[in-house]
Design brief:
By secondary structure, the protein is α+β, with helices and mostly antiparallel strands. It contains nine helices and 25 strands. It folds into three domains: about 100 residues, DNA Polymerase III, subunit A, domain 2 (DNA Polymerase III, Chain A, domain 2, Roll), CATH 3.10.150; about 140 residues, DNA Polymerase III, Chain A, domain 2 (Roll); about 160 residues, DNA Polymerase III, Chain A, domain 2 (Roll). Helix 3 packs antiparallel against helix 4.
C-alpha cells in the first residue's frame, strides 16, 4: 500500500486534523489518521473530520504525532509513504524513516446513516454565533446538557448556551427545514470553527469579480443524520460529523427578562473594562464581588475586601432609571467585556433577576447578580436557614437552569454570598445527598 503526496499538502492535512487527535485516549487507533478511498479521516470518537484526498487510494494509518514531528525537518516537495504490515516507511529526497502503525481495520468507520433533514446555511453567521456562545457553556460534566451549544433549528435558527449562572442567546436570520433542538459539544464547536477557518472559500458560480468572491456569504451544507448526529460539509473539501449531546436543553427564551428595564445604561466598553480591572484584586478578597452604582450620569465601580475598599468612577453615555445599583462577579464581567471596543448596553429588570448585556451584533448575554449588603441598608434579621438549603447545588427535581431564575434573600451580606456566583470550575460547592 503506497501513497505519494506533496509535503505541503500533508502539512495542511495534519494542521486540519490536529483538533480531533486526542492527546490521551483509551483507544490507541484514534492517534492515527486513516487515508484511503480518496479520503483522510481522523476522530476523537466525539467528532470526526473527513478531508478530500484523491491521491490516497489505498487504505493505511498515519501516526499523527510521529509524522508531525518528522514533517518539521523534511525538505523537498514529495514524500513517499508505504505501509507493510505494522510498519510505515517514509522516503524523501535525502532521508527515510520507519514507524510502527496499527491495523487499518481497527479504525472507526462512519456507517451509512439516513438523512433526516438538510439545508444550505450561511456558514459565516452560524459558525461565528456558535463560537461566540462557547465561553458560556458549563464545564461541569454532571450537567451534560449545559456543556454544549444549543441550536434551536427551524425558522429562525437560534444559538444559545449557559452554565446556570451566565447565558448567551442569539437569533440568526437563518432557517432550517426541520424544527428541532440539538446540543453540540463545546469541543465539537471548536473543531467546526477550526475546519471552517482552514478550508478554502468556494467562490459562488455567479461571481463576476474578486470583490464578489471575497464578500460572498460562505454557504455550508448542514444535515441531521441518523438518530443523533450532525454533519456539516464545507464545500467539497472537508466534512465534520458530530455526535450530539443527548438530552433536552433548557427553555432558553423563558430565561430572558421581559418588559421594560428598571435601569438601563450605555457605556463605552474599554473604559468599563479598565475600571473593573482596577478593582479586581480587592474584589478577589471580597467573594469576587464588583459593585456598580449609577447616579448623576456616572458609574462608580467598587470592591470591598478585608479592611480594604477601592472605587473607580467613569462617565456613562446615558442612563435611564438612575440612581440604581447592582453587584456582579468580576470574572464573569471581564470575560464578557474582553475584546469589545464599542458601546455596550447594560439592563436591569429587577433586583433579583439576571443582568442583560448587549453589544452590536454579538449574542445577548445574561449574568446573575450577586446580592450584597450596601452600606446604607439595615441588616435584615431572620432565622438562619439550614446549611444544606444554602449550599445545595441541584436538588432532586430542580431544572438545571433554575439558578438563572432563583431568588436569593435580599438580607444576605457580602460574606454570605454563595460560591454559586463564582465562575464555574474555580470552586466547587458541597453537594448534599438526598
Amino acid at each position: 500500500m503506497k501513497l505519494e503526496i506533496q509535503v505541503n499538502k500533508l502539512r495542511e492535512l495534519m494542521t486540519l486534523m490536529k483538533p480531533v487527535i486526542p492527546r490521551k485516549s483509551t483507544l490507541k487507533v484514534t492517534g492515527y489518521i486513516r487515508v484511503g478511498d480518496g479520503k483522510a479521516v481522523a476522530t476523537d470518537l466525539e467528532t470526526m473530520v473527513i478531508y478530500d484526498l484523491p491521491q490516497a487510494t489505498e487504505p493505511m494509518l498515519l501516526p499523527y504525532t510521529s509524522l508531525a514531528d518528522t514533517l518539521k525537518y523534511i525538505p523537498g516537495n514529495t514524500l513517499k509513504i508505504e505501509a507493510q504490515g505494522r510498519k510505515l516507511s517514509l522516503a524523501w529526497d535525502g532521508g527515510t524513516a520507519v514507524y510502527p502503525t496499527e491495523d487499518v481495520e481497527d479504525f472507526p468507520v462512519l456507517p451509512e446513516l439516513e438523512t433526516r433533514a438538510e439545508g444550505l446555511i450561511d456558514g459565516d453567521a452560524l459558525v461565528s454565533a456558535m463560537q461566540a456562545a462557547l465561553p458560556y457553556t458549563a464545564t461541569d460534566s454532571q450537567r451534560p446538557v449545559l456543556s454544549g451549544v444549543t441550536l434551536v433549528l427551524g425558522s429562525p435558527i437560534e444559538v444559545a448556551a449557559g452554565d446556570g449562572f451566565t447565558m448567551s442567546h442569539q437569533v440568526l436570520g437563518l432557517t432550517f427545514p426541520l424544527e428541532e433542538k440539538v446540543i453540540v459539544p463545546a469541543r465539537s464547536v471548536s473543531v467546526l470553527g477550526h475546519v471552517f477557518d482552514k478550508t478554502p472559500r468556494t467562490p459562488p458560480s455567479t461571481a463576476d469579480s474578486l470583490i464578489s468572491v471575497i464578500t460572498a456569504k460562505r454557504q455550508i451544507h448542514m444535515a441531521l443524520i441518523g438518530e443523533n448526529k450532525l454533519k456539516v460539509d464545507f464545500g467539497e473539501s472537508a466534512s465534520v460529523v458530530i455526535n450530539l449531546i443527548q438530552g433536552n436543553p433548557p427553555e432558553w427564551l423563558q430565561l430572558i427578562p421581559k418588559g421594560q428595564p428598571t435601569l438601563q445604561s450605555h457605556l463605552f466598553a474599554p473604559q468599563f473594562e479598565a475600571a473593573v480591572k482596577r478593582v479586581r484584586d480587592i474584589a478577589k478578597d471580597g467573594s469576587g464581588i464588583v459593585r456598580m452604582a449609577f447616579a448623576d450620569g456616572k458609574l462608580t465601580v467598587s470592591a470591598v475586601g478585608e479592611e480594604q475598599e477601592i472605587r473607580a468612577t467613569l462617565d456613562v453615555i446615558s442612563t435611564q432609571g438612575e440612581p440604581g445599583r447592582t453587584a456582579i462577579n468580576y470574572a464573569y464581567l471581564l470575560r464578557y467585556l474582553t475584546g469589545k471596543q464599542g458601546i455596550i448596553t447594560l439592563s436591569q429588570y429587577d433586583k433579583t433577576g439576571p443582568l442583560a448585556f448587549e453589544y452590536q451584533n454579538s449574542p445577548r448575554v445574561l449574568i446573575m447578580p450577586m446580592f450584597v449588603q450596601w452600606g446604607d441598608e439595615a441588616v435584615a434579621t431572620k432565622e438562619p436557614e439550614p446549611e444544606p438549603e444554602a449550599v445545595e447545588e441541584n436538588p432532586e427535581g430542580e431544572e438545571p437552569e433554575a439558578s438563572l431564575e432563583e431568588e436569593t434573600p435580599q438580607g444576605e451580606t457580602e460574606e454570605t454570598v454563595t460560591a454559586a456566583a463564582k465562575p464555574a470550575g474555580k470552586k466547587r460547592r458541597r453537594k448534599t445527598t438526598p
